[in-house]
């Protein structure tokens, strides 16, 4: 079945053409749905919009916005009633939007900047040979049986660094597997499943936790203004889920994915990595360690003092709404850039600034096709959001589930299922929760189910579909990585690789949640599954 999905998926047109077809479909459907007057009325909990001041730096004709730091780092959340109707792209306003928004759609597409900034450092480190050297060291010190588990666990934990896992760990997973004679696509799939399919949980508090917690509290206040949950309300569940999912994804990789792929006989696309002796590699790694320690010292100077520059200027927090967490992609870039330069100097693989610039230029040149694909995807997502079809679909499904006359446990399972389905068209964590929280948190409160339990159920449903939905913004990047090891690979290859993870994780994690709920294990410190 998976082979059939791969063949069928790879026979469809290029992803760019697919999204152009989808754009046409969205335009037609928006006209039809708007003509019949499709709309919904609902309550939504979301951060209050922040008013920025337009500036024109460097004489550019495109304005930049400057925002008050306090409002950016700690935005208030409000609940209000909205009526949303389908907007047609076939009207005069819709055509004007299509005509005038192309550049803004692309520049506002955050993944473009994330990839370009991160790949400055990661690309240089790869061309210098640092990535390969680190993988060889990892393989040398880690038991062969534990390699999959280590990569998977690191992938799950990477959500503390926001999207960095997509850009760093997924390529490393493929290289690590190939270095020990295993199929690189199995390593890529394991890392992708860990980073994307479990994004909602961690053993630590992640940047996204602050926002979803505030939205949950605002929704709970609709029924009980005195009730609120803390940032750690799902901590125990997050720790338990992390360990459970790490073992589960390891099992799927070793027993399902890798046997299907078979033995790898190809070669990866050349990374222009210079040949080095063991002595040169050892010296390069030593220099890279010095570079890493230098970056670490600077980071400590900026974060350890109570008034550190990278702390939240209002609360002093290092995690909640802090510049440190907001700039993690820059930190990742800086670490790889400095350590890559130091390794290149020590191993003599980068001789002078010209060689370093050539390495970065080659990296960007290899991203040309991806950037064009992201340009088209940015237009599709902008048009889809403009029509409000995703919001209408989410509210309709929420209303249907709310009206279902079933017990709390089955309602929680139904909530997970609805979240899974909606994740196909709304992959973002916050947009779905802003719509769902005001509906389901009050509903479950009336049924005696605590807000932290609803949030935990949402985490279960929010992630597994991330690795197969075409609206996952990093999917084109994953396809590009896959083609390094299988030239004819396309969207079908990636989807067929990831379907087993999605199905097994969705079912097993739901059962894990149900068992946790029935056993009555607290979801976090002072956070029981039911109201007391």
Automatic annotation (TrEMBL):
- Keywords, alphabetical: Membrane, Transmembrane, Transmembrane helix
Q: Which GO terms describe its biological process?
A: p-aminobenzoyl-glutamate transmembrane transport
Q: Which residues cross the membrane?
A: 16-38, 106-125, 145-178, 185-208, 228-253, 287-308, 328-352, 364-386, 406-426, 433-458, 464-482, 494-519
Q: Does the keyword Membrane apply?
A: yes
Q: Which GO terms describe its molecular function?
A: secondary active p-aminobenzoyl-glutamate transmembrane transporter activity
Q: Does the keyword Zinc belong to this entry? A: no
Q: What's the name of the protein?
A: p-aminobenzoyl-glutamate transporter
